[in-house]
Design brief:
- By secondary structure, the chain is of the alpha/beta class.
- The protein is built from 13 helices and seven strands.
- The strands form two sheets. The protein has a five-stranded mixed β-sheet.
- A hairpin with a 2-residue loop joins strand 3 (55-64) and strand 4 (67-76).
- Helix 2 crosses helix 3 and helix 10 (190-202) runs antiparallel to helix 11 (207-221).
- The radius of gyration is 42 Å and the shape is elongated.
């Protein structure tokens, strides 16, 4: 091997100590969100044990009137650099790379973060898009670089088509990436998408439940025009939804039909049953009286309401007149 190549390899594997103030952040850093609490914890660890893994930088030279100024641009190690500043370190260990191409800087920063699971789903999606748009990489090439399948890259990129409020909810951790993927099924139906998002957030739906709901809504939306409920049916559906607090569908078939009520957990099912049962009790107070279960074989002597029957007509009162016979009237009386 030529001597100059050996020296170059040795230099690239060597560790140098560089002033913190001379290291500029990587403009292609895909990560945008940093947990301040974790940064402070890392800073405390650095104070005790130092930086165990060197940062990776590239050398930047710029000419000024007094000569050449040398700075460095960070490729990998953003968290360590931030924590070092919090810990008030003056110098940090670095490895200086010769590659200065923007593509290399982005690739290294992306791969480091993806492999360490440091990116949230939206940061990862934006980084993939940057590789595709700015560096003309195909989705398959991106997948090879980060050790993922082309389908994974494609599905991740689709997250960027979601409304801003849903993307922010993913970044903030209010919903998961799985929830976001289920919402993608309703991309062409914004009202239903927003309604399902609210259900996911407020009712704490699982990913599986949200996927089922998305499929069900998507199927409902592709019904034939003849199957679309009329105005009266839609009004009744809306009244039931407001009363029960969940989606309700009425399907008419001739004079009859069926009512479908959605629920997403056992607790929600029990609440729906309680609501319906409570309404029946208000309308029929007699339902509140529960009969005690008697032991088998013993007669039930509890009073039961008797059916109302018409009372018999009152018989006319008979007045009996009595009188005492005189003696002279009985002289000639024989039996």
């Amino acid at each position: 091997m030529p001597e100059n190549l050996v020296k170059e390899e040795e230099r690239q594997s060597s560790i140098f100590w560089v002033e913190v103030t001379k290291i500029q952040p990587n403009p292609f850093q895909p990560r945008r969100e940093f947990d301040e609490t974790k940064l402070k914890e890392l800073a405390e660890s650095i104070k005790q044990y130092g930086i165990l893994q060197p940062l990776i930088v590239v050398r930047l030279e710029r000419e000024v009137s007094t000569g050449t100024i040398v700075d460095y641009e960070l490729i990998a190690g953003e968290r360590r650099l931030r924590a070092a500043k919090i810990a008030s370190l003056l110098h940090v260990p670095v490895i200086i790379r010769t590659e200065s191409a923007d593509k290399v800087k982005l690739e290294i920063a992306l791969i480091e973060n993806v492999q360490r699971e440091d990116l949230n789903p939206m940061e990862r999606a934006r980084a993939f898009k940057q590789l595709v748009d700015e560096f003309s990489m195909r989705q398959r090439d991106v997948g090879i670089r980060v050790g993922k399948s082309r389908e994974f890259v494609s599905n991740t990129l689709r997250l960027l088509t979601l409304p801003e409020y849903i993307q922010k909810a993913v970044v903030d951790g209010r919903i998961s990436e799985g929830h976001a993927r289920s919402l993608l099924m309703l991309s062409e139906h914004q009202e239903e998408q927003e309604a399902l998002f609210n259900d996911i957030y407020f009712k704490r739906l699982s990913v599986r439940d949200s996927e089922r709901a998305s499929r069900r809504i998507a199927v409902e939306r592709v019904r034939k025009r003849d199957d679309i409920p009329d105005a009266e049916t839609r009004s009744l559906e809306e009244r039931l939804r407001e009363a029960l607090g969940t989606r309700v569908y009425i399907e008419r078939k001739g004079l009859g039909g069926k009512i479908s009520i959605e629920f997403f957990s056992e607790e929600e099912l029990q609440n729906l049953i309680s609501q319906v049962d409570g309404t029946r009790r208000k309308e029929s107070p007699s339902l509140d009286v529960e009969k005690k279960k008697l032991p088998q074989g013993e007669p039930d002597f509890s009073p039961h309401p008797q059916p109302s029957e018409p009372l018999p007509e009152t018989e006319p009162e008979i007045n009996i007149m009595t009188a005492k016979a005189r003696e002279e009237d009985l002289k000639d009386f024989t039996i």
